[in-house]
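User: Hey, quick favor. My workstation is busy. Could you predict this chain's structure for me?
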Amino acid sequence: MDALAGLLDGPRARGAFLLRMVMEPPWSVHIDDEAPLCLMCVTQGESWIAPASGEPVLLRPGDVAIARGPEPYTVSHAPGAEPQARIGPGGTCHTLQGEPLAQAMRLGVRTWGNAPDGSTSVLIGTYQMKGEVSGRLLDALPPLLHLSAEVWNHPLMTVLDEEIARDDPGQSVVLDRVLDLLLIAVLRTWFSRPDAEAPAWYRAMGDPVVGQALRLIQDGPARPWTVATLAAECGVSRAALARRFNDLVGEPPMAYLTGWRLALAADLLRESDATVETVARKVGYSGSFALSAAFKRVRGISPQEHRTGGALPERQQSSP
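Assistant: No problem, here it is.
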């Protein structure tokens, strides 16, 4: 399992908010949905994206952008255009005065806009829930990531364009998986740029020793890992692995393992009805007591409080 696939494996799209936006100028939409991540691909015309903090970015056909939440941003035909609609949490759509717009701007299956034959078309895929596994990934991204068609060209954009308006059985699952693959492809391209400031954990995946240790942890979180057993699997001494891992990743192997296990547990608690005991054993703890102790120590709340929506302390919001 590689770095990006591993980090996306837990909170992968589940019932993602996907649509094709078709617009004719003048138009402007204010996005305030608090979603953790939104991917946008322009297939026709032009679109400007203006983050709450930062300069507007122009998207042309073939360009792709990722907006990182929860900060709001505006998508429009021109910089500074006055918003005519607001997208709120859960994909709700209203005028700025609060009048509903969802039905008035519905143009068909997963198609929305102000004109059926509008000159601008944008594919939009939104991850609606922040899964803790992706905390490291989200923290590594700028508020707005942009790749032009000159450096980015992937057949999955065409696949998403073809699939997004279909209404076949199980289509939402198909779209979720296409969105996941497209996101991973975009991020790989982003991190591989010559001027990219890839996070330490991503760079470390390329190291023959630490990369192997990271993959072992991600692929087998339930195994009874110690620094010694990890080192043996990687063919180095315990001291060598500990030193190299800490230098490249920025934390000791066991601290990374704990974060990974708790991140997986956090997702399982929120997204399944498995008992705390079952979740504990699945991610490598001896039972519910051990998981609860680790959860409270690292995250400040119990597994049950997390499951029922308890807020994380501010210092833990970006934990892996």
